[in-house]
Design goal:
The protein has 512 residues and is an alpha/beta fold. The strands form six sheets. Strands 11-14-17-10-18 form a five-stranded parallel sheet. The radius of gyration is 28 Å and the shape is elongated. It starts with a strand and ends in a 12-residue tail after the last helix.
Length: 512
């Protein structure tokens, strides 16, 4: 007898429907076909042990399991449960009338318990799109899948529960989650707040500009000046995620298995801070079984690279394309996968190996040329993609011990949102652009027009400070964002002057 169940294979951040056909006939062997990897092939032992635990039997006949379509590689242990259900139906040990109306996924333990799996959210979305009645999966993943409405999410803890449910002997109520309620209740749950930061008003201002225009930032300053502390607070002033952005972000974390037990919709912008020993594959994604990297996990959020010159050169250079295209394409001989990577890059670095170049109190002990060599570890093409260069100075004792209340993130975020609203209106005819940092050169010329006084100031600044030509567009984009925050229709001289000061590393001879 032939039985048919349905599962799913995740490719990139989307899922493909997999049909699992089981045929039990004359013979004595077990065959699994349809391009399974080792983890899928090993399901025979897990399934057999789980069936025996609940007093079912593995047929001592010829069992053929076909995973179709056969040209898609099947990976992982999540096919255990649908294979087990198909074997029970095909060997006529049980009878399921609605087996083909459900997508079934789950990894079996030897005692028949179900272990959580990756990529549940895209599978649930695909199951609803294909018109299935429900999705049977491990209970620990049920809350994540219940983000998707109009499909029954049935969480089970054991193989026996899944069998009883499909036979009609056990009633399991579908898990229902009010996605919008969870989303809107969690929008303001930020862990860090700018109200905790004393002093550093100029850095807070730079962060506000970066958040309002979606600009990348690099902070240069001595150890202990507060670079990491300020970076961690940036997500608290970014505009809240839209529901669509939250679903996109949750899908990526679901595929990577980063959501954790009983997790639901991610309503906060992600903040990823990889260590400087990270490999290029771990940063951008890839591997034999392609997985999203740190830049995709930071999608719609912030990627923070602390101690930028300590990262390997190859690691930093692979970021150049994703910073421009806002997606990562991972190509293999048989498959090409796209992962979204629309993130803000925040980097920090010491000004020299000892950390005290340009320090107001401590003396730098680095020899001649060492400072420049240290800064040159970060390539020009990468710096070209960073709009704001901010010098961070240590906080004075008087500011540290001050009891004066500082501006909270909530107030700063309101100004950022107003600035983004102006940009949304401006780019309404360009759906792929929604902030000033994304403007191509032809739009910069059209939108960032300056008067004669502004041109004179910019010309003088480029000549006197030795600013490079690549700084020109960046200054205009940042000036446009400053004007948006000030609710100004035109870029004024004072907006340009402030934007110019955020190009520290473009000054010739900055490091002596």
């Amino acid at each position: 007898m032939v039985a048919k169940t349905f599962g799913s294979a995740v490719s990139g951040v989307d899922a493909n429907l997999i049909t699992i056909e089981v045929n039990v006939g004359q013979g004595t062997s077990f065959f699994m076909v349809g391009l399974p990897d080792s983890a899928v092939k090993e399901s025979q032992q897990r399934v057999e042990s789980a069936l025996k635990y609940f007093n079912y039997r593995m047929p001592r006949q010829k069992v053929v399991v076909n995973l179709a379509p056969a040209d898609i590689r099947k990976e992982g242990s999540a096919y255990d449960l649908p294979i087990a259900m198909g074997i029970l139906q095909a060997s006529e040990q049980v009878s399921f009338s609605e087996l083909e109306r459900y997508v079934i996924m789950g990894e079996l333990a030897l005692d028949g318990n179900l272990r959580p799996i990756k990529g549940v959210l895209p599978i649930a979305i695909e199951a609803r799109k294909r018109g299935f009645k429900g999705f049977i999966l491990p209970l620990e993943n049920a809350k994540e899948a219940s983000i998707v409405n109009n499909i029954d999410i049935i969480g089970v803890e054991t193989l026996d529960q899944a069998v009883d449910f499909l036979q009609g002997n056990l009633e399991i109520k579908p898990l229902v989650t009010d996605t919008r309620e969870i989303f809107y209740n969690s929008l303001d749950d930020t862990e860090f707040d700018f109200a905790d930061v004393q002093g550093q008003e100029n850095i807070k201002r730079a962060m506000e500009i970066a958040a309002a225009g979606g600009h990348n930032v690099i902070m240069i300053g001595p150890p202990g000046a507060g670079k990491t502390m300020l970076a961690k607070r940036l997500p608290s002033i970014l505009p809240p995620l839209s529901l669509q952005e939250a679903l996109e972000t949750t899908k990526i974390h679901s595929v990577a298995g980063k959501l954790g037990k009983h997790a639901s919709l991610l309503a906060q912008r992600p903040f990823r801070s990889p260590h400087h020993t990270i490999s290029d594959v771990a940063l951008v994604g890839g591997g034999g079984n392609p997985q999203p990297g740190e830049i995709s996990l930071a999608h719609n959020g912030v990627l923070f690279l602390d101690e930028l010159p300590e990262f390997k050169r190859t690691v930093l250079e692979v970021m150049r394309q994703p910073l421009e295209e806002r997606k990562v394409t991972i190509s293999r001989a048989k498959v090409s996968v796209d992962y979204p990577a629309n993130f803000m890059l925040i980097a920090s670095m010491n000004p020299c190996p000892c950390g005290y170049y340009n320090h107001p109190e401590k003396e730098c002990v680095c020899g001649p040329g060492i400072v420049q060599r240290y800064l040159n570890k970060v390539s020009g093409p990468l710096l070209d993609r960073i709009d704001l260069h901010v010098e961070v100075t240590p906080v004075r004792f008087e500011e540290m011990t001050s009891t004066r209340k500082t501006e909270p993130s909530k107030v700063i975020r309101e100004r950022v949102i107003k600035g983004r609203e102006r940009q949304k209106t401006r780019f309404q005819n360009n759906p792929e652009i929604y902030c000033n940092a994304m403007m191509p050169s032809h739009l910069v010329k059209e939108i960032c027009q300056i008067n004669e006084a502004g041109k004179t100031l910019l010309k003088t600044a480029m000549e006197r400070l030795g600013l490079s030509a690549r700084a020109y567009d960046r200054i205009l984009k940042v000036a446009r964002t400053i004007a948006d925050i000030a609710d100004s229709e035109n870029i004024r001289v004072e907006h340009l002057a402030e934007a110019i000061q955020y190009r520290s590393l473009d000054r010739e001879g900055w490091a002596g």
